[in-house]
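Appendix B. Raw example, untouched.
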Amino acid sequence: MTSPAAAPAAPSARRQVVVDTDTGLDDALALLHLAGSPHADVAAVTTVYGNCGVEDAARNAAHVLRLAGLGHVPLSLGARGPLEGEAHIAGYVHGHDGLGDLGLDRPDPDVTPETSAEQLVRLANAAPGRYDLLALGPLTNVALALRLDPLLLTKLRSVVVMGGSGPYRPLGEVLMVDANVQNDPAAARALLAAERPAADTVTLVGVDVTATVVLEEAAVESLRRAGTAWGDFAAATLDAYADFYVHEWGRRVSPVHDGLAAGLLARPELVTGTVSGPAAVLSNGFATRARVLRLPDGTPPAVRPEHPPMPAVTAVTAVDRRAFLADFVTTLAQGSPR
């Protein structure tokens, strides 16, 4: 049972962000980018399984927080697996330790006595309207938090999810795997079905848009030449990420999945297109995706969801890629501008 909600907090000029993460390669850079943003503060980090086990996710998050000078930020351990079924760990992408097996010094971190779900509920109730949630991994922690407090989303300023597949694509287009949804479809349904004040309370930054924002080889070289601790870490991390994506595109490049979600939360003006509408989590027996039930022309699709459509959600469909990538690389090269 949750305690009575406090009075709504006055909005801050800088977004106060709780980052829920399965800290793999792109999560680590998203967290570092957010740490360097003049538009946001990392208020807390909650960890979950996914790209690696939850203990490695916590070690990796702590490593990034120390690098960013944010060792004081509270860090919690969360779910070790999905609400239903077995955990799928993406070691073939992120390495066994989640950070490309680069041999980094990652001592066991100090974690809060609260679980990730408990920490999220406590923060939201202590200061309604103050915190933004950035969900970068499977949504299991969020679903568990909603079990503790079904009104959680009414107490958060916003929720930005790196997940979903947006509206249906034009004929012939193929999408990347919607991994964060596929890893726990029941948790994704719980989030999308939860009570919230408006469609834009929950924003999906899905694989339909993150796959279009690609970091080129020249950008990685510029990070390597920067001569900073942040730049060195980013370049090594992106090299490890390119080891996977070179098999997709034949070049040592990588999409900025989680980093884009972080960048858009901090700078929503970089969003140039969205669509809102009823949402559903759908499976064709092979892939599971979170969808906005809209065709490219705005009409409903010819699908019958297994579960009733959920309340309206907002999905990002287009971004200012050039401005985002310039900001992302500059921040990672220079470190915090504060």
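End of appendix B.
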